[in-house]
Design a protein that fits this description.
Layout lengths: L1 E3 L3 E5 L9 E4 L10 E3 L3 E4 L5 E7 L5 E8 L3
Protein name: Immunoglobulin V-set domain-containing protein
Keywords: Adaptive immunity, Immunity, Immunoglobulin domain, Signal
Organism: Rousettus aegyptiacus
């Protein structure tokens, strides 16, 4: 579980190219109160990189990394 303190999360798949790569987030934008817990689910497929990065966006538009994951972890 991830702790969420701002307006929401989006997932960002960092790739050099996008041909054949896709990511699907099952939830839309999520807003939570501070210190609330959230489980985010997604599926992704890539031919380039197994790394997936979770980015948090606050209401002011600032971005900060939450965690990164690698296929199989």
């Amino acid at each position: 579980m991830l702790s969420a303190s701002c307006s929401g999360f989006v997932i960002l798949l960092i790739l050099r190219g996008t041909c054949g790569d896709s990511v699907k987030q099952t939830e839309g934008s999520v807003t939570l109160p501070e210190a609330a817990f959230l489980t985010l689910k997604c599926t992704y497929q890539t031919n380039y990189s197994p790394y997936l990065y979770w980015i948090q966006h606050d209401p002011e538009g600032n971005s900060s990394p939450v965690c990164n994951c690698c296929d199989g972890e």
